[in-house]
Amino acid sequence: MTAKLLFKTLFLVIMLFMLVLIGMNNKDTVSFSLPPILKSRVTQPAAVMYYAFFAVGILSGVILGAGGGGKKSASKDSGGKSNK
User: Fold this and answer.
1) Hey, which end of the chain has fewer CB within 10 Å, N or C?
2) Cα distance between residue 3 and residue 32, in whole Å
3) SS3 74
């Protein structure tokens, strides 16, 4: 297991633990409005709203980070030999 994978796994476990804590301790309702997209206000418990924004952030990061392999270089020279 590489250090990078270990760090990412630990980070994910900590974030999920934070979601559990937020869900247990934030039961008040929150009102959210976004006039250009939503016609009416959305009223949900604060923990549900936090989870929704967290999910949107994760999805945005995955979409922006996907496919970052780049193009492979053009065909390699065949061992320095010319084809004349």
Assistant:
1) C
2) 40
3) coil
